[in-house]
Amino acid sequence: MTPARLILEGEETSVTAVRSFPVAGFLLALGSAASFALSGTFASALMSAGWSPGAAVTLRIAFAALVLAVPTILMLRGKWGSVRRAWAPLLLFGLLAVVACQLAFFMAVEFIPPSLALLIEFLGPVMLVFWFWARTRVRPSSITLLGAGIAVLGLVAVSGVATGGGLHPLGILFALIAAVGNAAYFAAAASADHGIPPLPFVGLGLGIGAIGLIVVSATGLLPFTVTSNPAVLLNVEVSPLLVVAGLVLISTVVSYVLGVAAARRLGATVASFAGYSEPLFGIVWPIVLLAIVPTGLQWFGAGLVILGVVAVKLGELRPVEKRVVAQSN
Fold first, then answer.
1. What is this structure's pTM?
2. What is the distance between the alpha carbons of residues 182 and 93, in angstroms, rounded to a whole number?
């Protein structure tokens, strides 16, 4: 679920940006991916301190929606008619791509390491390939299908099923639900016919998600537990409020801001590729901050997942590249 990719979906690819490949834009995209990948680490630290997944995700989404409220309102001046017409994609984004995806991911990290939960969640683009195949009856390219197969093999290796041990089945299940939400994230972001600019679309979606989470938490259907117990990062006990601040400001707000800046410099194609560095950061941060190190087989599986998703992306970009060339001629 990287913000740089969300903001970029549906935009026209800039051939000039791809050729020049500005270093500053690439660094901004990497910063966006790195900051977003910290969410699993922060959430894991909070839950180890006794917080429920519902509490962590509710506070994250609610405070992020508040931070983005002002720019969202300013950018929507004179465009509220578009918001009324786009109620369906906004609900899809807010309830499935935000609430279901984030909540399932946070529940997954209760049972499996954040790095592996993030890798499984990143199977969302692969799921989306087969969804569009079933919906349009158009067969994906051979590169796309090969990438999907490689990613699935990587998931098998990461889960440890082949060796008879492996990850907790509930962790895998919740991570796969997050992958479905991740696929919805891409699908909703790719829809641009409603006329709402990307940033306010994100702000409205987060607002819808925050309202849904608060209502469900208030009714007691979603366990909402917070504690004052210290959380542990870098083997040091810190206040849970500090972790919440990092979750909201670094992993949500900063990642979106950097994503917007990267989008203006790189164009859709290059920035979306840079966004796939997020799973790599998702492996590094738990090692550095939580001392959670994947096994050798899980490292191998992680590499397969990333390779497979990149291959899927390459397959998706082939018709885009042909269309851009045709338009230029």
1. 0.68
2. 10
